[in-house]
Structures are given as structure tokens and as C-alpha cells.
Amino acid sequence: MSQRSLISLACLVLSSAMTQADDWTQWRGPNHNNVVAAGQGTSTEWSESKNILWKVDVPGRGHASPVITGNTIVLCTADDQKQTQSVIAFDRKSGKQLWIMPISQGGFPPAHPKNTHASATAATDGRLVFAVFSHHEKVEAVCLDLNGKIMWRKDVGGFRPNQYEYGYAASPTIYKDKLIVSGDCDTVAWVKALKLTDGSVAWQQEREKMLNWSSPIVANIAGREQLLLSGTYRIASYDPETGKSLWETKCLTMATCGTCIWEGDLIFASGGYPDPETVAVKADGSGVAWKNNVKCYEQSMVVYKGYLYALTDSGVAYCWNAKTGKEMWKQRMSGPVSASPLIVGDTIFATNEAGTTWVYKANPQKYEQIAENQLGTSAFASIVAADGQLFIRAATGDGIGRKETLYCVGSK
Hints:
Strand order of the largest sheet: 1-27-28-29-30
Number of strands: 33
Structural class: mainly beta
């Protein structure tokens, strides 16, 4: 092995050691499924004046969730007026802004009014931070150190939807020494792995050209690690090490925004355009286990101890038997919904676009509500949890008067 390879390997080992067990390192969290063990003191009730440890203004607008490593919180954000996209860092203990690094200016594509130009959540290996943005008809990946210094930046691939100009949304995922990024649209479609060290392409795969906004995720299931991606009328599995296609199961609809989840020998996903469908497929690619016509289009679902939980676009909570698809219960709440539910211990936190969060037990026998909370008047980013604290990105107001805030919720 060359000296350069040994240095790269040493850096990767060091970065893995620096990522703490209670960090929230990427979209869907440390376990890639939005399920974490209960943290001591995790609050189930909050308001603007209750159980708020700190709050801080977030410049710009974005739907990206926070990522947390050590004492640093990182967010992606965009200023629509100046057409700038930036990565911003806050102190985890106090909420104080540590730095903000502009990444790009100009070239904003058309986007759906509910989307933003900073909807993809960043990722961290504990030493570096990785973010992706779409501008100038392409997707760019950037690597920064924890002081905000840009280490490298690379154009990953083209991205210019034709039929529906709704913008970009897919979050990257880290696998070993690679950053995996996807871009699905009707003019170009791809999934690629970049080397964490310098952003060079480790592998790439073309995909069928269709509109889709799902994020890639790596699961250890069916006896191996699989890179999963839903949408384009299928669930597809790739070898995350090489990019080789492992299998694909025809199912779902064309466009999905949520991320695949899994348990046992089943993988679950949902979509909403042009037709609604929630589906369970066998993790070896051998077929569909069950399906229904429930629509979880924007958000992902969660699975816990044999049961699948979802809050649909229209604000209806469901619980299904994960193996059979049998409906255990459903509960009308209020929609619309874009954020994905989170499970901490055996407690579900589910938020709608108006900033209302319902807290209820992951109980397959009945809907068991614990609390109903309100922050701001708008919420699209998913709540994240770390070390007994919740981190919530919410907003108040509309248009140029819109103001975003990052809250740290916990017991004082």
C-alpha cells in the first residue's frame, strides 16, 4: 500500500472514532432509519416558553435538517433574494452561530413553492462536513472542515427537469470512504459515489430518466449491505462499494420523495405521483410482499419492532403490521405534512407543515397520544434527536417577512 493510501486510511479511521454515538450525522440519523434510543431527559412537551434550552435565528430558507457532530450543528440554507446557498454552523451548547460559508451564487433553478434551494440535509464523518446544492443546471458537492473552510468542491452531475420544474431535494449519504449522491429527473438521471478525500468519482450508475426526489440510503439487510433508492416505478438496490446493480422490484409510482426503510427481510417505501402507493418488498429482490394505496409522498415512514408507522400527506397517522400490511389503527390529525416522523425510544414525534408536532407511543394496539406541541407557523424540516435533546427548524411568517429559527428542546 502506498504512503498516500496509508494516510487516507488513517484519516478515515480517525474520523470514524471522532463521530460520537449520540451524534446525528446525516439524513435519517446514525442508524439511517430515524429511530434512536431514548435519551435521558428527552422532552415530550414544548412551546415558545416551555422546555426551550435555546433558539437562534437561521438566515435564509431551507428544508434541510440539522446534522450534529460533537459540539457543532450544521445546516444548509439559501437566500432567495441574493440567490446564495450556504452552509452554516452553530454551537450545540449555546446555539451561537459559529460561522457561515457561502457556496454558490446565482443560477437558481425554478422550484415548487413548497421546495427550497437548500432542501438536502448535509452529512458528516465527524471530521468533515459534506453538502450538496443544485444550481446552474447541475448538482454540486462541497466538503468543508469543522471551521467552515472549503476542502474541495465538485460538479457531480447535471440536473435540469423539463416537465415539472420542482427543484432538487435528495440528501447525500456516507458509506465508508464514499459520499453517495443521486439526481433523478426526466433529462438526466444518475447515482454516483465520490471519494471523501478529494471528491473524485469512485463509481457511477445511470438511471432511467424520470422525475423523482428520493434520497439514497444504505441498509444492512438480506445478508449484505445494500444501497436503496425508491421511485421511477421501482425500488432499486445497488452494491454501495461498487455501484453494481443488485436487483430492482417493479412497484410504487414514478415520483417518491421519502427514503426507504427496512426491518427483518422487508423494505418499505411510499410515493404519491401520479398514483398513491405504500409497498413492502422482499430485501432479496424476489418480489412484493404487500401494498396499499396510502400516500406518503413528501415524507418518509418509520418502522419499529414489527410495525410500520406513517403520517400521510393529508395528516392521517397509520400503524400497519410490517410483515402482513394489516392495518392496526389510523388516527386523523391535520395536514398537509412534509416532515418525516422520528422515534426516540418508543415515542413518535410527527410534525405537519403548520408546525404542530404530535407526540404518541409506538403502540400497535391503539393510538396513544402523549402531547400536542406548537412551534412557529411553518415546519418542513424533520426533527432530529441527540443526547436527550430535540433540534427543530421552524419558521414564522410568509414571503420576505418569513423568519426561520433553530430550536433546542430539552429539560432544563
